């Protein structure tokens, strides 16, 4: 069984949204799907290259 998705409000600059819409269209995704894809890829990259520990 697939995990349920959680909805939330996203406030975004109109120009950024336009760029996301263009990018999503180029890759045959919805804007929501494109945002999920970008976040998923960023999290995978972060796991491969974790940020250095902070010593505050």
Automatic annotation (TrEMBL):
Lineage, top-rank taxon, reads Bacteria
Name any one Pfam family assigned in the record: RHH_5
Database matches in InterPro entries = Arc_rbn_hlx_hlx (IPR013321), RHH_5 (IPR012869), Ribbon_hlx_hlx (IPR010985)
Q: Which residues form the CopG-like ribbon-helix-helix domain?
A: 17-47
Keyword Transport among UniProt keywords: no
GO MF annotation, one: DNA binding
Key words, A-Z: DNA-binding
Name by which UniProt lists this protein:
Arc family DNA-binding protein
Which organism's genome codes for this protein?
A: Larkinella insperata
